[in-house]
Specification:
133 residues; 41% helix; alpha/beta; single chain
Length: 133
């Protein structure tokens, strides 16, 4: 079978020599996690977005957990804080609550949309962040 121009191959990888050098540099450093490349990425990302800091996360789930932890800290959320999520959502949204000591199933709720607008409206109260779809 002939390869079509610009076809994405399955099971193949075209890795440049420069990328191989970077990978080998990381492997030779003895650190597979936080190192000079990640530090450089965070610094450049923060600078590009005109922020003092940036944090690279290993996954979207970790980023959600960090975001929830920051909101909890900023707004002094306690265990009684209710997190209301849409009924159709990614499971990581629910999974992030217990990791910061917010009970997912005891105090979180599913919101079932009643309209077809699918617009998110934020309603603030002293205890909850409501997202209406």
């Amino acid at each position: 079978m002939d390869k079509i121009k610009n076809q994405i191959g399955v099971g193949t990888a075209n890795i440049s020599n420069r990328a191989k050098e970077y990978v080998n540099d990381v492997l030779n450093s003895g650190r597979l996690s936080y190192g000079k490349y990640l530090k450089k990425f965070e610094e450049e990302f923060a600078r590009e977005h005109e922020k003092k800091y940036a944090v690279m996360m290993n996954s979207g789930t970790s980023a959600l957990r960090l975001a929830l932890a920051c909101l909890k800290e900023k707004y002094n959320w306690g265990p009684e804080t209710e997190i209301i999520l849409p009924a159709v959502t990614f499971i990581a949204d629910f999974n992030g609550c217990p990791s910061i000591h917010l009970s997912t199933f005891a105090t979180s709720s599913l919101y079932f949309p009643t309209s077809r607008s699918y617009r998110c409206q934020e309603k603030k109260s002293s205890r909850s962040l409501f997202c209406r779809i």
